[in-house]
Amino acid sequence: MSKLPDYTPPKVWKWENENGGQFANINRPIAGPTHEKELPRGKHPLQLYSLATPNGVKVTVMLEELLAAGYSEAEYDAWLITIREGEQFGSGFVGINPNSKIPALMDYSTAKPTRVFESGSILLYLAEKFGGAFLPNDPADRAECLSWLFWQMGSAPYLGGGFGHFYAYAPFKIEYCIDRFTMETKRQLDVLNRHLENKKFMCGDEYTIADMAIWPWYGAAVSNSIYEAAEFLDAKIYTNVIRWAGEIADRPQVKRGRMVNRATGPLEKQLRERHDASDFETKTQDKLESQKD
Ligand SMILES: N[C@@H](CCC(=O)N[C@@H](CS)C(=O)NCC(=O)O)C(=O)O
What we know:
The protein has helices at 54-68, 91-96, 119-129, 139-169, 175-195, 209-222, 239-249, 252-259, 279-282, 285-292, and strands spanning 46-50, 76-80, 104-107, 114-117. The protein is an alpha+beta fold. Helix 1 crosses helix 6, helix 4 (139-169) packs antiparallel against helix 5 and helix 4 (139-169) runs parallel beside helix 6 (209-222). The longest helix is centred in the middle third of the chain and has 31 residues, at 139-169. The protein binds glutathione. Glutathione (GSH) binds next to loops.
């Protein structure tokens, strides 16, 4: 075991120093807004405030899937929330998500406007709003789907906040922390790999909100799209997860959903704001920047 930094916790922890690492500037031990800022509102009843992180992508994929399945009332405006700049702490955003994390959704089609936060809750809300789309009908199958949806909500923080933080973002590498969260991440990948052995999707032949929740995290882990850790995790051994992840990544709706609220990477893959289906053709960042010249 490598030498550990010398640290004795004080009696009462105080917020004195930035703890270092990426995202340190947005970490705070208190909740609530830091500044007044109203959120913009577009023409559709569904207003999404988000960013194309794995948690954000779950919702844009669901909305694109609903539209492709013919639910035209799932048309939406998607607004970019730049979390590195603290936009999640604006008063308008905190009003719809007191937890200050993307994604957050407003539905203005209801008698009283409905706010929804937490990606799992948004997926379930949309599935129920659109007649049980991407949610099995049969009670036992539905229970299985919800079990995997909630599995994701409980498990991904070990992959993201645990493994990803200590492997990729922490200001120095701590063997104890990396070991602990690598162990758990690999265990979770093995859970998925065993489960997917004889199944096309998480709940059998039907593609559901459980796949939409799990894929952006665990599909990204095995395809090296987060933390550049596929080799370290020896991801190639999770062959069923790799097969499942590839199949989902090929869906046109998933390709579109991944572009929405993306503000990094290739310009032609970034649709920072989405207000209309035609925006994929005309408003990607490469097109917007070429119009400036
Ligand atoms: N459990 C939440 C997690 C959401 C979350 O952690 N969002 C991150 C981006 S992936 C965020 O907004 N972070 C900003 C912050 O922590 O200040 C969900 O699934 O919606």
